[in-house]
Amino acid sequence: MTRYTRASSYEPTRAIIDIGSNTVRLVIYGGPARAPDVLHNEKVTARLGKSVAENGKLGQRASAAALASLARYRTLLDLKGITDVDVVATAAVRDAVNGGEFLEQIRALGLSPRLLSGEEEAITSAHGVIGAFPRAEGVVGDLGGGSLELVDVDAAGCRHGTSLPLGTLRLPGLRAGGERAFGQTIAKMLKRADWQAAPGSTLYLVGGSLRAFARYAMTASGWPIDDPHGFEIDAPQAQALAKVLAKRKPETLMPVPGLSSSRLAALPDTAALLFVLIRALQPGRLVFSSWGLREGLLWDRMAPGVRVQDPLVAGAAAFTAEYGIAAGTAAMVTGWTVAARLPDVAAGTEHLRLTATMLCLATAMVEPNLRGDLAREWALRKRWIGASPADRAMLAAAMIANTGRSDLPADLAPLALPEQLRAAQAWGFATRLCRRFSGNTAQGISGSSLMVEDGTLVLAVQPQIAVLVNEGVERDLKVLAAHLGLKPEVR
To answer: What is the pLDDT of residues 287-345, one digit of tens each?
Structure first.
């Protein structure tokens, strides 16, 4: 299959160095403030937390690997001219008796590390989830190499954050005494932390090991989306899979695209922890998030006016601007096509319809031989912050209809309801009609309107631009009208 990719022209604006228990990572961000793009992402698996779990100290070899990577990161940032750098250290450095000495060595490199407390780490990760899922309500669980952070989230914010010594580097030792003892240990930790959740709530899961579990579940079920961000699974289904995986040896697990051998090797331990957590917290569903601690740091610095923006619209506007699509033009086209909205189905999805319009308009700026793959590449594969699986399916349906096709691939059906897909197809057909008729010009859009009158879909056109109506426009109007169960008319 032909793959279409673009080179980002975004300027790097900010960097975050995350000194974790398993990896030391540098991420450089650019693009829109509300939905930043990752322009550079690299890590070194230093495993700082391994020796901390064994003897309470940062090992010399792990520390040397971490410091070497940090020296590289510092030089890269200097060469790129990036001065806005946030350096944070978490569980391994926090728990190590020689953590203070290690921080001094980092300062000697010219970096300014900040050591997060367990509660700060939990709250910051929760802020990342809130940024990715603006209406998040439930429990955030962030699993790292050295610890598991839990925090309640709802419309009022975050509360009751706690950090438990249940990181992936500690799990093999904790499981050595058997599954029963393992479960009892976790139950005691939760009780000591005075931590419990409301049964039936949503459990938002953060961390590479938990996303590995999501990838495995997605592959096993034939899920049509390969990005684990936003993947949802019912708690009983997740618990059943976790129970099976916890008993498996890593070498017997099926290979999963995009999943490293180290993540696959740690999957049984992660599954064992997840099984116990589901049993203890009794969530109704699990939602996996690629936004966590680092994005929480970005969220903490966002201006209030930026936070209230819709992340999906902000990300799509920046993405399609690179194809010459102005946000104002897309808004005009969206307003023009409002009559194509099916009753009730699209209520409250104005942001999604605007996003679909922007993507549909952008596809017309791409070479024709590449357009056939864009619905899958852009809607189902690109990481959209703020889009649910159903949203992605609707974006794909709209983009396919925008090419003039009425057939949809079968793998969209598990993601969205039939009426949602039909509504999205109407958006795509209507955008195609507007684009063909007006050429996306302000005069063409403002000099015409689309409306429904007595079972008829009417394209009303001012006399001075009536010449824009041609056979192709009439054909697109007919297709849209038929989709809506209406008769077409040009007036």
So the answer is: 999 999 999 999 999 999 999 999 999 999 999 999 999 999 999 999 999 876 665 55
| Model pLDDT, residue 332 | 95
The answer to whether 194 and 278 are in contact (CB under 8 A) is no
Which ranges in 342-470 belong to alpha helices (H)?
A: 350-363, 368-371, 374, 389-402, 418-438, 442-446
CA distance 191 to 85: 38
d(CA 133, CA 292): 11
Is the pLDDT higher at 268 or at 9? 268
- Report the Cα 253 to chain-centroid distance in Å: 26
For 84, how many CA atoms within 13 A lie in the half-sphere containing its CB? 10
Among 138, 135, 451, residue whose Cα is nearest residue 278: 138
Sheet holding 448-453, edge to edge: 448-453, 456-461, 487-490
- Residue showing tokens 């003039």: 404
* The pLDDT of residue 279: 95
What does the alpha-carbon distance between residue 270 and residue 93 come to, in Å, rounded to a whole number?
22
* Angle of the 327-336 helix axis to the 311-321 helix axis, nearest 10: 110
**Main-chain dihedrals φ then ψ at residue 17, nearest 5 degrees:** -110, 120
Please answer whether residues 420 and 394 qualify as being in contact, where contact means their C-beta atoms are separated by less than 8 angstroms: yes
DSSP state of 378: I
Per the model's pLDDT, the better-predicted residue between 94 and 194 turns out to be 94
CATH architecture, range 119-295: 2-Layer Sandwich (3.30)
Q: Give the confidence band of 2 by pLDDT, cuts at 50, 70, 90.
A: very low
pLDDT (mean) for 129-156: 93
Q: Do the domains 12-115 and 310-490 sit in the same CATH topology, yes or no? A: no
pLDDT in tens, 26-46: 999 999 999 999 999 999 999
User: 310-490: CATH homologous superfamily?
Assistant: Hypothetical protein af1432 (1.10.3210.10)
| C-alpha span between 393 and 413 (Å, rounded) | 8
Annotate 140-180 with DSSP letters as a single string: EEEE-SS-EEEEEEETTEEEEEEEES--TTTHHHHHTT-HH
Query: Look-up: residue for tokens 């909205």?
Result: 341
Map out the domains of the chain as residue ranges: 12-115, 119-295, 310-490
CB contact at 8 A, 165 and 173: no
Q: What is the CATH number of domain 12-115?
A: 3.30.420.40
